[in-house]
Amino acid sequence: MIDFVRGRVVHWDTEYVVVDVRDIGYRLFTPNPYTFVKNDDTVTIYTHHHVREDAVLLFGFATREEQAMFRKLLEVSGIGPRVALGILAGGKPETIAAAIQQENIVFLTKLPGIGKKTAQRMILDLKDKLDAIPGGFSFAAAGLELEGAFGGSSDGLQGGEDWREAREALAALGYTAAELDRAWQALKDAPVLNESVDALMKRALQQLFKG
Fold it and tell me: For the region Flexible linker, what residue ranges are annotated (predicted)?
């Protein structure tokens, strides 16, 4: 099994990056490709090597926690690699873990590709297993995030640290202030989770690609 790759990102798309490892290009599908394209430095991407009858795929993650959560999600009936990837694009591992621990159906059904029945299966299958994940998760801190995740106005992100960091990273990729302002107008009017910087970047880039 391939546990991680270390190299330089030479190509990226909305769903994957290609990493040059000693003149071999590895395509890795990842929750947010733009996590890895902020500079030309060597990056380490933790992986899950997925083999099926018609394909051999590599999924890549910025942290061990993402990698571990991805593998746990695959244990849930009805959740395949693509859905698990979408879940991690929609929320931080510790926040997802806290929602499962707290049996927060409302939160879980806001994640991409998750309906009520699948959310119930996630709780049933994973609630007693997440403490065993190496490194663990800060359930108490994540619980605080969950309290306000869906209440009030989505404008709670306006001017917040997460959006400011995402905006700075996007500006470094060459986007203008006017383009980023337009992207934010689309983001702030849509229902959102308490998103990470990487998730905000991915959603902003989707808006920017629309023109």
Answer: 141-153
Q: Which residues pair with 121 in a beta bridge?
A: none
pTM for the model: 0.68
Counting Cα atoms < 13 Å in the Cβ hemisphere of 21 gives: 13
CATH superfamily of 4-61: Nucleic acid-binding proteins (2.40.50.140)
Q: Where are the domains of the chain?
A: 4-61, 65-147, 154-206
Measure the CA–CA gap between 73 and 125, rounded to whole angstroms.
9
Q: Which two tokens stand for residue 73?
A: 């999600």
Mean pLDDT per 10-residue interval, the chain, length 211 residues? 91 91 94 79 92 87 93 92 90 88 88 90 90 54 47 40 75 74 73 64 76 57
CATH number of 65-147: 1.10.150.20
